[in-house]
């Protein structure tokens, strides 16, 4: 776009048009012609990017803008959008998929055929293969996504291959016109008549010699039809045809007659040919129609547009005026589209839009005005272009500021904010950019991203490339360059949208649609060329009347432009981010840094930062170049300022001119009435985005003026500025500009910041959601929350009920003209800043109203920023103290800021940031309550979603503060922020003491009329709750003992115990760190109550807490009582549990009984007992009658052998506890062996336990149990029973299912006497191993325990031997057992005498069980030993009663042998044994006889 064209407007995108969901419908080919068409060559113009808009008007519905698009990349697809200016942007569009590529033509009109049903539109299209289509379209929203094929009854097609080749096509309702290569034109009544009906086709040809005024004869030939246009004039439809040879013809379609034929080639520029034709509307006053013809150069890259006029008289007379109105040469930029109306001409080029006014009375065209496209805005926002240096001075100044430690997140926030700017952000461009970084999102993943999630994903694309603070700028630059490339690719301009009835102008792009607006006055100055400021004198701007003042103003603007170019465009972005970020750096620090860089440049430190990024040589060269530019700038600025001073003669006049210039920055004011509900529509979204564009320019302009004034102050000595002028700058101008800057900042922030999605956990947001859905209009836009296109201003607009006196407001049913868009943006800015009044004091009040609306809908982050901006501004004002004292506005602001910080803290995931916001919120609430007029101001502050902060009937300031602090406490509690809630509870306690009459237990003026003790008790209870939530156990304990309300105190104590137990912090209860002064008894009662009503498996167990609690206080018996209670409940409640649980319970019982015994051992023996009936259990029901304790029934178990009842009676001493411990230990061992116990009640019989223990080879435990429960003869009896069982397990003939647990080595010690026993020996399971203290053999076990316990019962070997022989009379007794009978020695002179287990007993057993050979051998052994005594022992043998043999048993052995021999069994063996026995006995008897005689003789000699 040439520089001579004055900029008059800019593009405003309709946000959201790139995010439509498309309903795709396939158009089925005809079965009769599909095969031939597939093979046919192209007969119509080829596909290219094209688009157009058709406006459908009606009396019963608002006008509808139907937009169609054809993409060269998808030649078989036709896209259709249905837009209504007064309604919301639709969410779906229609895509028709054709079987063949399409020509760049489509025509949509209103369906006026009466028999078509619910199809309001007709669509004409043409494929490249020569098939014409007519579709009967429904509303786009009526085509559901479930459809896949376009209804065949709703379209017809017609083959035009016979007319090949087709060069141009046009249509109107009921008529399709095609131009051919031979110059002929054919008309088809497509839609009105059947394709086979007569009159369906008509060819337009010359007839006769001429018509009316002597046109050419029929024989004249014309060139190829280049373009066709159908236009309606005075109710008749005319066809305008332009041929390649420059012939222009006009046909009356109703009569098929030609009304004009004229050759215009003479007016064509040299070397150009006709390419396109456009026809405007008729001018009713002059009866002229404007025509525009595009000429393209065949050799030169130049395009020319010629404007002609046709005069239509009444009747059929059409006259072409002889002279063209203007030839417009398009030197730069590719031509895209053109639209001409009755008095306006719009030319779309790839670099901008040109606008011309047509003056038919003067046959002239006004000088061009240009409209900038969105590409320029996007490039400027993303720092694209050569004028934006990567490391311009604004970035480097940021590196030297206090923000350098957070440089990366701060800079990233700037770029992210601009990438997500409405009109810049686009899904397709972002996803294409991400693919360059090897990042791919699925559709579901991308759609699920929130705004914060989207920011994190975008930052992750460059996060890995950031290796130094300065490198982040390069990384973002590269990303934005890629993004801008894809943005331009996906938003290529296709065509124009013009509504002649309103003057609306729009642009149809590849994926979006937009409108154009006019520029504000200050934009005309800012975007105008600095060298052409003189042209603005007659531009209509409100400039100074004095010529000298105008010159001064233009010089000031040149100085501003120089500073802006020197510092760079990023400076405004940095300042903006500093104002809306989390106060990383304040503007008070930032602006002086910019001014310092303007004066002296930047130090070598910054140059060093560039070395790592661009290399040492390049960085050195850059540093030299920057210093050169800095010197040049300083000199030029000083020269300009001196020239300005010389022209104005004084700085006062310059400052007055600047002050007059500031009127351009004053936000507009318009009076608006609040009488209608706002409706969010396409027009309103355009209005909001337009106002944000204006606000951006205003903000940057105010910032530039501040920089200029600051620069003047810094160089005041060099430019001879007086002190009065400096004071005016610092005290008047800069505060005024800062006020403007804040107002435009708020407007831009609201218009560009995406809204937050509703948080389901937020109570106020849920209320807001209900409120939104209460109206039919608002039900859909609730879903838009959290999207980039639905900004805070959209939310505010929908929450208002605003209209304007201006009829051209945003509620129009038409797309507004550029001027109307500007006026609506001004009205919107007025409403945002001033509300519905033009009073200058209304800004604060209306800002509060807007903040309340945002709070109602959960926009906490935005509110925090807005209030932070206002708070920072108020702190800078010199009259801040008066602000605090006036009407409580300062208190309202702090109150809302505190509430907002509180809500954000609740959502914050990072602990550090959450704690920081909590502290800030607490500070805000305290500051709000301390301001003058706070009670009156805050009492009136109530709206849906925010609880009322106070009471109107509070009698004193302290009473009001009490309620306010309680309200704040409840709000913090609601958001689970206990730290802040605790602070306000403590603050409320302080206020209780300040209330008159509180010390007399009456809270004077309190509307609740509660005693002071009750209020204090409730507050201390809250302090306890909050400190307990924060795990501040000592503070919670202090709150308990400080509570004056006894009932509340005990409730808190109970809660304290429960919570500490649940958290496992029982050490705090029992280690003595918390003394529980005066609460010991209550503490014990609470623990006891909890123990009795808790599950016995609770962890930690309350009984153990009681045990530790009492042990720490040396209450041994009480500690023993609680642990025994624990053991008793385990015994009764876990009896029927699963095996694993039973084993664990038995282990717990053992631990409990052991602890009980240990505790009683610390007591004096006379008091070492417990009585469960007297130790606290019986009183539990009386203390807490509302709940029942778990009942434990203890029943005794009596032994089958009459064992004395060991049931625990009233008093339980250590002996009984030890017995129970042993019994429990036995049960535990059996449970480990998976042996199920037989219960009698909830006890087990010791006899059964002994049997089970022996069966399980648990002999140690079995003997321990026997020794513990039996004494005297009972002990011997039980020992015999145990050894009988053990001996039986050693007998091979008794090895069965119950005892197959022995190792194979068990039987290696036995000499079996039969094959049956051998088979049993082989069948023994060798897999089970019995774990004993000595060896693995049952024989070894028997030997071990027999040696150990025969001292307690000497007859045990006899019992064992008799058991073995009884089980198997042929068993070979082990040698160790035989040795036990022999006493471990050979036969002595004493014969076979000894203890109970003597050789005589063994001899008797042999005889009793038929072991005659062993009996005989044993007897012979002792007889021989008797006979072979040493001489020394003979004397002893001859003493009286010195020897003894079991003669009766010997006699019985003799008779047994005789009986066996007489019966015929083992005769030889019996005879042999008898013979041996006889000889031995005779010898023995003879020896006894001799010894007896010697004894008698010896006795007689002694008598003598």
UniProtKB/TrEMBL annotation:
Domain Nucleoporin Nup120/160 beta-propeller, by residue range, is 65-523
GO MF terms listed in the record are: structural constituent of nuclear pore
Q: Which InterPro entries match?
A: Beta-prop_Nup120_160 (IPR059141), Nucleoporin_Nup160 (IPR021717), NUP160_hel_plant (IPR035192), TPR_NUP160_C (IPR056536), TPR_NUP160_M (IPR056535), WD40_repeat_dom_sf (IPR036322)
Where the protein is mainly located, per its record?
nucleus
What residues does the NUP160 C-terminal TPR domain cover? Answer: 1214-1494
- Matches recorded under Pfam families: Beta-prop_Nup120_160, NUP160_helical_2, TPR_NUP160_120_M, TPR_Nup160_C
Q: Where is the NUP160 helical domain?
A: 540-733
Query: Domain named NUP160 middle TPR: which ranges?
Result: 910-1162
Protein name, entry field: Nuclear pore complex protein NUP160
């Amino acid at each position: 776009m040439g520089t001579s064209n004055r900029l008059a407007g800019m593009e405003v995108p309709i946000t959201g048009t790139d995010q439509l969901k498309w309903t795709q419908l396939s158009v089925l080919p005809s079965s009769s012609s599909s095969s031939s068409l597939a093979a046919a060559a192209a007969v119509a113009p080829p596909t290219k990017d094209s688009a157009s808009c058709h406006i459908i008007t009606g009396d019963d519905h608002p006008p509808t803008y139907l937009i169609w698009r054809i993409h060269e990349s998808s030649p078989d697809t036709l896209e259709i959008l249905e837009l209504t200016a007064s309604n919301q942007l639709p969410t779906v569009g229609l895509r028709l998929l054709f079987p063949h590529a399409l020509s760049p033509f489509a025509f949509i009109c209103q369906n006026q055929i009466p028999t078509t049903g619910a199809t309001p539109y007709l669509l004409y299209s043409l494929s490249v293969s020569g098939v014409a289509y007519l579709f009967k379209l429904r509303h786009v929203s009526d085509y559901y996504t479930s459809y896949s094929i376009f209804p065949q009854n709703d379209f017809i097609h017609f083959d035009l291959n016979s007319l090949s080749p087709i060069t141009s096509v046009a249509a109107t309702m009921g008529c399709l016109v095609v131009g051919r290569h031979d110059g002929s034109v054919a008309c088809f009544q497509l839609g009105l008549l059947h394709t086979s009906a007569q009159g369906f086709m008509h060819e337009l040809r010359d007839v006769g010699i001429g018509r009316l005024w002597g046109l050419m004869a029929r024989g004249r030939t014309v060139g190829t039809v280049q373009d066709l246009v159908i236009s309606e004039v005075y109710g008749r439809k005319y066809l305008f045809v332009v041929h390649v040879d420059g012939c222009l013809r006009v046909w009356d379609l109703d009569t098929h007659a030609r009304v004009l034929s004229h050759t215009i080639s003479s007016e064509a520029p040299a070397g150009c040919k006709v390419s396109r034709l456009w026809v405007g509307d008729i001018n009713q006053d002059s009866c002229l129609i404007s025509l525009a013809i595009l000429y393209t150069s065949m050799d030169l890259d130049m395009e020319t547009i010629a404007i002609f006029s046709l005069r239509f008289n009444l009747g059929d007379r059409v006259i072409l005026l002889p002279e063209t109105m203007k030839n417009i040469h398009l030197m730069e930029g590719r031509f895209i589209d053109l639209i001409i109306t009755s008095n306006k001409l719009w030319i779309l080029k790839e670099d901008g839009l040109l606008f011309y006014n047509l003056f038919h009375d003067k046959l002239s065209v006004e000088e061009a005005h240009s409209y900038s496209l969105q590409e320029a805005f996007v490039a400027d926002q993303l720092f694209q272009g050569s004028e934006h240096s990567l490391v311009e001075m604004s970035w480097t100044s940021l590196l030297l500021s206090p923000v350098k430690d957070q440089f990366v997140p701060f800079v990233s926030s700037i770029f992210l904010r601009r990438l997500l700017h409405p009109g810049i952000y686009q899904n397709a461009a972002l996803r294409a950019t991400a693919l360059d970084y090897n990042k791919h999102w699925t559709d579901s993943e991308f759609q699920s991203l929130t705004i914060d999630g989207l920011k994190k994903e975008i930052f992750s694309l460059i996060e890995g490339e950031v290796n130094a603070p300065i490198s982040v700028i390069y990384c973002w630059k590269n990303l934005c360059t890629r993004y801008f490339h894809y943005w331009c690719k996906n938003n290529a301009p296709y065509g124009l949208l013009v509504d002649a009835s309103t003057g609306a102008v729009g642009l149809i792009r590849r994926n979006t649609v937009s409108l154009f607006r006019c520029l504000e006055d200050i934009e005309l100055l800012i975007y105008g060329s600095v060298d052409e400021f003189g042209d603005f004198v007659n531009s209509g701007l409100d400039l100074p009347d004095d010529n000298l003042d105008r010159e001064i103003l233009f010089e000031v603007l040149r100085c501003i432009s120089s500073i802006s170019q020197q510092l760079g465009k990023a400076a405004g972005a940095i300042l903006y981010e500093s104002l809306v970020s989390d106060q990383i750096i304040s503007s008070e620090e930032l602006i002086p840094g910019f001014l310092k860089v303007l004066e002296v440049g930047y130090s070598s430190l910054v140059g060093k930062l560039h070395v790592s990024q661009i290399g040492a040589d390049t960085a050195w060269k850059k540093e030299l170049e920057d210093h050169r530019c800095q010197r040049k700038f300083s000199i030029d600025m000083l020269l300009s300022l001196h020239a300005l001073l010389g022209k104005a003669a004084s700085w006062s006049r310059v400052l007055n001119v600047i002050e007059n210039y500031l009127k351009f920055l004053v936000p507009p004011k318009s009076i608006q009435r609040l009488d209608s509900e706002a409706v969010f529509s396409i027009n309103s979204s355009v209005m909001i985005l337009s106002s944000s564009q204006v606000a951006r320019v205003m903000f940057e302009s105010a910032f530039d003026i501040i920089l200029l004034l600051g620069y003047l102050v810094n160089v005041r000595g060099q430019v001879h500025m007086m002190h009065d002028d400096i004071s005016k700058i610092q005290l008047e101008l800069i505060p005024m500009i800062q006020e403007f800057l804040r107002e435009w900042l708020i407007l831009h922030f609201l218009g560009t910041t995406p809204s937050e999605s509703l948080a389901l956990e937020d109570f106020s947001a849920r209320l807001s959601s209900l409120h939104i859905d209460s109206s039919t209009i608002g039900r859909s836009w609730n879903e838009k929350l959290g999207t980039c296109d639905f900004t805070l201003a959209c939310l505010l607009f929908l929450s208002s009920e605003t209209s304007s006196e201006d009829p051209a407001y945003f509620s129009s049913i038409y797309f507004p003209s550029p001027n109307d868009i500007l006026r609506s943006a001004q009205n919107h800015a007025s409403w945002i800043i001033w509300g519905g009044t033009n009073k200058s004091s209304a800004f604060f009040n209306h800002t509060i109203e807007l903040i309340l609306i945002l709070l109602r809908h959960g926009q906490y982050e935005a509110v925090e920023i807005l209030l932070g901006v206002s708070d920072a501004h108020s702190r800078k004002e010199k009259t801040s103290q008066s602000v605090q004292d006036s009407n409580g506005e300062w208190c309202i602001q702090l109150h809302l800021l505190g509430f907002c910080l509180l809500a954000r803290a609740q959502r914050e995931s990072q602990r550090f940031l959450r704690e920081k916001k909590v502290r800030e919120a607490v500070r805000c609430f305290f500051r709000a309550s301390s301001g003058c007029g706070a009670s009156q101001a805050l009492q009136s502050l109530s709206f849906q979603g925010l609880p009322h902060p106070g009471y109107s009937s509070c009698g004193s300031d302290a009473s009001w503060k009490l309620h306010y602090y309680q309200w704040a406490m409840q709000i913090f509690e609601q958001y689970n922020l206990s730290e802040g809630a605790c602070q306000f509870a403590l603050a409320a306690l302080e206020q209780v003491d300040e209330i008159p009459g509180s010390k007399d237990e009456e809270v004077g003026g309190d509307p609740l009329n509660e005693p002071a003790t009750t209020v204090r008790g409730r507050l201390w209870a809250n302090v306890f709750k909050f400190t307990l939530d924060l795990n501040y156990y000592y503070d919670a304990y202090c709150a308990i003992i400080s509570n004056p309300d006894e009932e509340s105190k005990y409730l808190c104590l109970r809660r304290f115990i429960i919570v500490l137990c649940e958290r496992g912090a029982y050490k705090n209860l029992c280690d003595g760190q918390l003394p529980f002064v005066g609460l010991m008894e209550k503490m014990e009662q609470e623990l006891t109550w909890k123990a009795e009503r808790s599950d016995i498996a609770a962890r930690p167990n309350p009984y153990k807490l009681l045990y530790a609690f009492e042990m720490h206080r040396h209450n041994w018996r009480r500690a023993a009582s609680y642990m025994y209670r624990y053991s008793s409940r385990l015994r009764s409640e876990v009896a029927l549990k699963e095996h694993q649980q039973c084993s664990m319970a038995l282990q717990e019982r053992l631990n409990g009984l052991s602890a009980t015994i240990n505790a009683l051992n610390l007591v004096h023996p006379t008091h070492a007992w417990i009585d469960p009936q007297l130790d606290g259990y019986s009183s539990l029901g009386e203390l807490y009658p509302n709940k029942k304790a778990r009942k434990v029934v203890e029943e005794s178990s009596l032994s089958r052998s009459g064992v004395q009842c060991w049931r625990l009676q009233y008093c339980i001493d250590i002996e009984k506890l030890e017995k129970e411990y042993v019994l429990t230990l036995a049960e535990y061992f059996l449970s480990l062996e998976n042996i199920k116990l037989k219960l009698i009640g909830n006890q087990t019989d010791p006899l059964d336990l002994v049997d089970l223990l022996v069966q399980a080879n648990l002999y140690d435990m079995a003997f321990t149990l026997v020794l513990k429960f039996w004494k005297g003869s009972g002990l011997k009896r039980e020992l015999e029973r145990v050894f009988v069982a053990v001996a039986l397990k050693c007998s091979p003939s008794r090895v069965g299912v119950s005892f197959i647990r022995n190792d194979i080595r068990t039987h290696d010690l036995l000499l079996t006497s039969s094959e049956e026993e051998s088979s049993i020996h082989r069948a023994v399971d060798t897999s089970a191993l019995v774990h004993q203290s000595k060896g693995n053999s049952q024989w070894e076990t028997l030997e071990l325990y027999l040696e150990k316990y025969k001292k307690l019962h000497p007859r045990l070997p006899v019992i064992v031997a008799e058991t073995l022989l009884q089980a198997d009379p042929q068993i070979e007794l082990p040698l160790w057992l035989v040795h036990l009978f022999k006493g471990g020695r050979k036969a002595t002179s004493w014969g076979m005498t000894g203890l109970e287990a003597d050789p005589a007993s063994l001899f008797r057993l042999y005889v009793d069980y038929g072991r005659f050979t062993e009996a005989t051998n044993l007897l012979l052994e002792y007889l021989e030993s008797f006979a072979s005594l040493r001489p020394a022992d003979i004397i002893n043998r001859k003493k009286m009663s010195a020897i003894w043999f079991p003669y009766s048993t010997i006699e019985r052995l003799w008779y047994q042998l005789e009986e066996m021999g007489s019966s015929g069994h083992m005769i030889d063996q019996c005879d042999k044994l008898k013979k041996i026995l006889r000889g031995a006995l005779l010898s023995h008897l003879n020896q006894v006889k001799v010894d007896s005689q010697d004894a008698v003789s010896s006795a007689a000699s002694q008598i003598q």
